[in-house]
């Protein structure tokens, strides 16, 4: 197993270049859109973390106790959902069949629990807003060759990153891994037949 490596902080002109590197995703092809989002999450993960930390700090400075409570609730719900997906067949089946919906259910459960504690505004601005910014960038940013190469190395198992571990636990990389494995098996068959 590869050791976990922190991805490099991408330069600003790569992270946020001119409008020619951004395009509206094709909403009719959800698999392609999901692939773009996952690839960008993997490639720009350190940039996204830095952006989220800035927003967390801004909201955290105004409401530190509520922000800590919100972070704790989201972490516990996330850990509980991952545990449930590993230990309960029904949850595992749901996660496998609907990985994107599984992520939304985790977020809705977090929102519901925060509303019980009265910290909905902190949840929206401190946790949901950074996630919305990350999702918007990952959806709109077109991938480049370096992005694709880095992601293939992670999927094949040559390297591991924190975002890769998170996406894997949410079931977002299983489809990509299966496609890569099929591709590699087909290439091996071609080589053997030649």
TrEMBL record:
**Keywords on record:** Acetylation, Cell membrane, Cytoplasm, Cytoskeleton, Endoplasmic reticulum, Membrane, Transmembrane, Transmembrane helix
List the source organism: Clupea harengus
**What processes in GO biological process is this protein linked to?**
negative regulation of transport
Subcellular localization(s) per the UniProt record? Cell membrane; Cytoplasm, Cytoskeleton; Endoplasmic reticulum membrane; Membrane
What are the record's GO terms for cellular component? cytoskeleton; endoplasmic reticulum membrane; plasma membrane
Signal peptide from the UniProt entry? none
InterPro entries, per database record? Prenylated_rab_accept_PRA1
Record's protein name: PRA1 family protein
Q: Which family does it belong to?
A: Belongs to the PRA1 family.
Give the taxonomic lineage as stored in the record: Eukaryota, Metazoa, Chordata, Craniata, Vertebrata
Q: Which residues cross the membrane?
A: 41-61, 67-85, 97-114, 120-140
Topologically, how does it sit relative to the membrane?
Multi-pass membrane protein
């Amino acid at each position: 197993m590869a050791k976990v490596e922190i991805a490099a902080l991408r330069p600003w002109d790569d992270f946020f270049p001119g409008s020619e590197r951004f395009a509206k995703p094709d909403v009719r092809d959800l698999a392609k859109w999901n692939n773009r989002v996952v690839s960008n999450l993997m490639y720009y993960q350190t940039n996204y973390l830095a952006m989220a930390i800035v927003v967390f700090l801004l909201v955290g400075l105004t409401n530190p106790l509520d922000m800590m409570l919100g972070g704790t609730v989201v972490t516990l719900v996330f850990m509980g959902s991952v545990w449930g997906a590993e230990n309960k067949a029904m949850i595992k089946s749901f996660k496998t069949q609907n990985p994107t919906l599984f992520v939304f259910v985790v977020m809705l459960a977090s929102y519901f629990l925060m509303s019980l504690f009265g910290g909905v505004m902190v949840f929206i601005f401190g946790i949901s807003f950074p996630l919305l910014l990350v999702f918007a960038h990952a959806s709109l940013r077109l991938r480049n060759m370096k992005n694709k190469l880095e992601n293939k190395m992670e999927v094949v198992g040559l390297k591991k990153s924190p975002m890769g571990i998170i996406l894997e636990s949410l079931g977002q990389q299983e489809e990509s891994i299966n496609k890569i494995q099929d591709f590699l098996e087909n290439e091996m068959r071609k080589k053997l037949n030649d």
